Structures are given as C-alpha cells and as structure tokens.
Amino acid sequence: MKVRSQFSGPYHGSSVSLHGGPRSGREGIALAYAVFGTFVVASMVSVMFTMAGVSDKQADIKRGKSKARLLAEGALSTVEKDVQTALANWDSPLGAGTRTLGGVDVDFRVDAIGDEATLTDPSGILRIVQPYELQTRARVDGVVASAHKMVNVEWTPLFQFAVFYDQDLEIHAGPDMTLSGRVHSNRDMFLGGGSTITMDTNYVRAVGGIFRSKKDGSAAGGNVDIRRWVANPFDPAEPSDFNRMFSQGQLPVSSLSGYDSAFRDGFDADGDGDFNDAGDWLPFEFGAAEYWSEAAGYAGGSGQTVMTGQHGVQEAVTPNVGSIAAFEPDGSKGYFHENAGLSILVDGTTITVTDADGHDVTALIAPALTLTDIADTRQSGGDAVRTRVLEIDMGILNATSYFPPNGLIYAAHMNMGEGTEAHGVMLTNGSELAANLTVASESPVYVHGDYNTVDKKAAAVIGDAVNLLSNSWDGSKQAGSLPGASETTYNFAMITGSYGSEEDRYNGGLENLPRFHENWSNIPCNISGSFVNIYDSEHATGDWRYGADRYTAPRRNWEYDRSFNSIQGLPPFSPMAVSAKAVVSW
Fold this sequence. Notes:
membrane; 16% helix; transmembrane helix; transmembrane; six-stranded antiparallel beta sheet; single chain; 586 residues; alpha/beta; eleven-stranded mixed beta sheet
C-alpha cells in the first residue's frame, strides 16, 4: 500500500519507509524535525506575545496605580486646604464629596476625631486644636488607590499677631520701628529701612523666605535686630538678647545676599568642607535655628525665633474678602453684615439702619449719621475731586439705646466703584466707646481723632482700607494743600486692604498700612493694636505716593496690644487664622 505524502517537494508521490535507503531515511527524519521545529518556534512566538501582553497589562496596572496614588495624595492637600478655608470662614468642612484633579474625580472624606482642645503658650497666645482624619480615593483605568492623613487643625485669633500678612510683608521704614508681638507672612518677608527695625518677639515667621533686601532685589539699608527665643517675650524678667540680621553690606564675608533666606550655601572660610571653624557661616536654613535660638544657659525652654518655609512654616488660612462684603455673589449677606447688631447701608442719599432682628431703626439712629465728603488725594490722584463718606458720630451713638449689644456694627455704601467712587465710612468722636466694639465695612474706613482712649475697650476696625485722620483734621484739605496733623492715639486692631508691590510700584509697606492724609512730620501717631492685611483693596485702589499733597510720615509709636493675649481682651467677632500640622500620613 502506498501512502501519499502530504508534503510537496521533489519526492512528492514517493513511498515513505522507515527502512528505505539511507538517503530517503535521512530526509524523512530531517523533514520530521523541521515540522517539529516549526511547531516549537510558533509556540514560542505565541508564548512571547502572550507574555508581552501580560507584561503590558502589568505595566498599565502599575502606571494606573501610580497615577491613582499621586491623585489621591494630591487631593489630600486640596482637601486639607478646603478644611482650613471653611473653618477660617466660619463654616463646617464638608464631611464627604468629590474633588477633580487632572480630569479624574477623587472621592474624599473628612472626620473630626475627638474633642477640641484649647492650648495657651507661656506668653498667653491661644490655640484651639482639633484633630482631623482626611481620606481620599482615586480610580484610574480600573485601578484604585487611597491616601490617608491625620492633621491637627489649629485656630489662632488673628489679633493675637502684632503683624499678619497674607501676602508679602515689606517693612522699609525711615525712622526706627519696634515691633513687639508675633510677626507672620503667608509669603515672603522683606526687611530694611533708614534706621533700625527691632523685633522684640519670639515669633518671626514666613511661609516663603525672609530677605534683607527690597522686593525688587535691591539692597535694603538700616539695621534689623531680632530677639533670641524666650518662652514669654512679654515677661520683663526674661533675658533680652538680640542678634542682627545682617544686610549684604554688613555681612563680614563676601556674599551676594545678606544673612537671609538667599544665603543658601553658607561660607566655608578655610574650604575644609565643614562650618565648624572660625570665620565659617552656616547656611541660613541651619544658622537661623542656632543664631536666634535661646541664649546659652537659658532655663525657660528651647525654641527659635526666626523660621521660614525651609523650617516647615505653613500657611495659616484667613477669611476671604467676601466676609466684609455687604452681599456675596449668591445674594447672601457677607459674614459681618449677616451678624451685625447694627447694620447701616447707604444707597445714594438714602440711609437705612436695621438692628439684629431686622427692625428698621433709622429714625432712632439718624442723629448720629451724616452724609458729607472728604478730600482723599490718594484716591483722586491729586485732583480736587472729593469722595462721599458716611460720618458716624460715636459719641451720639453711645448715648442711644441702640449701641449694638453684640458689639458689631456693619456700615457700607452700595454699588461702589474705585478711586473717588469708593465712598467711605468715617468714625468721629470715638475717644470713648460704650462697650467692646468691632466696626466692619466693605468701604474704606476713616478714623478721625483719638479713638478708644477713655476707659479703653476691646476694639477693631475692618475695611477695604483704614485711614487715620488726626485730631487736627477739620475737613478743609484741598488738592494742592497739606494740613498739619497733631498727636493722636488709636487703640484698635485693624484689618485693612492693600495691594502687592510690583517692580515699579511700592505699596508703602507695613509702615503705611494705615493710610495718612496730613503733614505728620515729627508728630507722634500712637497705635496700640494689631496690623492685619489679608486681602487686596478692591475699592480704595489709589497708588501709594509720598509727599506733595498726599501726606508725610508720622513718628510711629506703634505697639501690639497685650490685652489681646486673653480671650476676654479680644474685640467682638475676632476672625481666626487656621493652620494644619501633619501628624501622620499613610
């Protein structure tokens, strides 16, 4: 029987016999091996493609897992900021929800853990601490990753800072200036001036850096002396040792900067690779921790006065500018308007006053209210145009039975513009207040004459801008003239707008945060309170300019009001700065 071969080739149709001749046997075996080899190669290729597919899928899974993890961790930071913002604006943080990052929805959950704790440091500064657990969960290409974080959220009353800036803090005063109390910037700090800035405090903090220069990078003169750390800088029994923050010109070694955050590499005098020898200077990050730590032999504890983002300083979130608005974009009242015990709104020439219950009490308050105008050459750009103000006579208001029982007055003009259209509120005859009082406004506020100097109360003024008029102010100022000021004392905390400095536009710095309108040359301006700048002015937007018919600077006798160290000494409705400190992440 013949078996027809299924293979084509030169021997197609021949018999196949395992016992055939030598040639036919070898060819048959070779042919069998070829068939087997082809099968093996095909199988190996198939396996390789299968393995490659598996490998690609594993790589995709790893990429998805990495991306999901990064998104989950990124969302943690967003949720943490959301919690701080909500609490700073008197809201409760969302318990759960979704945040979108990179086009991916990330689920989150926020849980308060345990009870609030109230902590007070040796100098009396208050912190309210609440632990929170934050959780996020992200899904990318079917792969899920989660992230967790435990944080201690801390509230600190804003008025327990001598100076608090949400933007860059610049101090370039001409005459000497002494700051007692805590100094904080949520961005950078630029220090210098014509003479000496003395920081008599155990707290000088910037989330960014601290620089002995102007914001444009040019050299800043003068001296900056900062106290070494003590537990309670308000205790006169504590040691009072100061070290100088050297400018570039004062630093004993060659450097492109002063002894500040730009001094990153240090100075190794003998080039031996360490900073342990005479003439060596540690990089600022490490040197500041030593230079402004407690003095040798100090038995009151340990710490450091000067800290920056390099040392872990984090942002403290503050209320947004909508809190001083008469109405939010959604039509609801701003926080201070909503909670006012007395609300005074001006619409054109119509004044409407309501009490906390919404009752119209305009007729009863009317004797304390006057619509007038004022020359503000900063807002008018030096022109003769005057701006409308609502004058509130605090002495007359004291005598009424409608002084707000909760200590909060809200007063503002409706439909304001900018410049001279930024109609203002002027507080006059305010040397004595009937009780603790906070006045808040979306408008610029002008404080005329001694304020809160008789039987001093806890007081604050919050506005788009805060302007100080001396006891000598009589309203006769005109463009091209500059009336003389007289010594005046103001006892209140202030929250006021400003604007960021640009290369060709200095905002006047802390020394001009309260705005002046008279010739104050060598005249004392006495302020006891707290200086807070947490938003840009939206209405009083005139550029800072010195001299001519704008103003000349006073002799600044400014100090932190130590009564604010206690809760009882704070003005009504004092806002909070909210920070968060990580405890653990996983």
